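Final paragraph of the annual report: two paired records, presented back to back.
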Amino acid sequence: MNLNPENGIHLTYCSNIHPGETWADVRVQIGAHLPKVKSHISPDEPFGIGLRLSAVAAESLSEPAAMEEFKSFLAGENLYVFTINGFPYGEFHGRPVKENVYLPDWRDDERLAYSNRLADLLAELLPGDLDLEGSISTVPGAFKPEIRTDADVAAMVDNLIRHAAHLVALRERTGRTVTLELEPEPCCFIETIDEAVDFFGNHLFSADAIASMADRTGLSGAAAEAALRRHLGVCLDLCHAAVEYEDPEQALESLARAGIRIGKMQISAGLRFAAVDESTIELLRPFNDAVYLHQVVERNSAGLARYVDLPEAIAAVEKNNGDREWRVHFHVPIFLDNLGQFSTTQDFIREMLARQRAAPFTPHLEVETYTWDVLPPDYRNVDVDSAIVRELQWVRDQLGQ
């Protein structure tokens, strides 16, 4: 929904909370859930969709008949698409995903082809308002352990520039602007704001990158740099940032100084344990599912320690005692704060939304609680549509809506 027609601030939730890998499955889920959510949160105004498409679903939606049917549905229900989650390429629900969620990564031409297709689809789906840009969130380069050489980094940079050139051509052809947003995440190639600033400054916005962009697009050097900065940015996931103990003010200032746009902010909460001992392990066992990675960042007297998944972190506690705080990458409903013996990172969301309310820094806001199906039953004692409505209303309340 358009929260502020003057500034063009749009709020939605990500449809990756609903299982579905083929377009037929996605279409059924959208038809079942989006109109219900809209009837509660935006009954009289258009409601935007944060669409998640696998590579298989994107290929099917590219078929003219499927596209026309979907457009007709959107028009009939007063819905519109303005952002796509292009992070998970393949299956995302019901079976182990873990670190495979990052594959293919940005070294691989398959990631480039998939992202190009998503951009083409989004340009066609965007509503008539030409001022409304589209955003696509994507993996933060790759899973960090997979990037071992300068050649790996160079391959990612080259494909990202090739994608930016595709977005330039798409803009020239359609008049629509679509942007790609790399999403920092713990244990990935880009996991912190400092790493994002470094990667953009030393690679994506470097003199070599500008020259490559100019060569691929025929733009002047200045225009090529402007195009890179227009089409490549970050998706600021608030769970990821809080788990990394980012400081809200410093994070926003660092990105602004580097000229990196925040094309999209995913509003999500993680778990927070102010102290960790054997009782913490027992509290966490229900969250240790076999489907997703749940990275843990520990703050202790020596600084920060990172664990790729909960079992690794639990094993470390069993071996070593000491004072420590844990933040865990497990998306929980954002309206939850105090969970009894532990809490969530909701305070971080509150602070970021307060800053967005005072001085908007991103046009696209997307609630993303994709872990609904693996959330322990005690924390999902309502139906999913009611939970989504409650999350969206909580955000609106924080924004003074």
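The closing record of the year follows.
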Amino acid sequence: MSIEDLQEEVIEEFSAFDDWMDKYQMIIDLGSGQPPLDPAYKTEDNLIDGCQSRVWLHAEMRDGLVHFEADSDAIITKGLIALLIRVLSAHTPQELLASDVHFIDAIGLTQHLSPTRSNGLLSMLKQIKAYALAYSAQ
């Protein structure tokens, strides 16, 4: 599935809920369903700067696609990174760099997250793009 298709899928799923508490619960559920990150990857190098919570993001290139794994010590943050991984993992570096990640605004996340969480979400996205840029240079 393309990044655009995955974004549309997320937008559709979130549009099923009118109440933001239900949307938060969906984010929490996504985080709960995220497999724990191998402790070997919970290093300072994989820690994302700019997040209030601790968030580790590990990336590796397999068969020309960048795959992401992540974990966080905060359940909402873990759900946010799980959402990003769902949309952005397993794509080429070029697809990641060219992507317009619009689902965050489309589902209303930017309006409903605290400023610190919004900054953290942007930091996660920037780190994903940084990995894509690094892999595209290889």
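The mean pLDDT is 94. This concludes the annual technical report; the extension proposal builds directly on these records.
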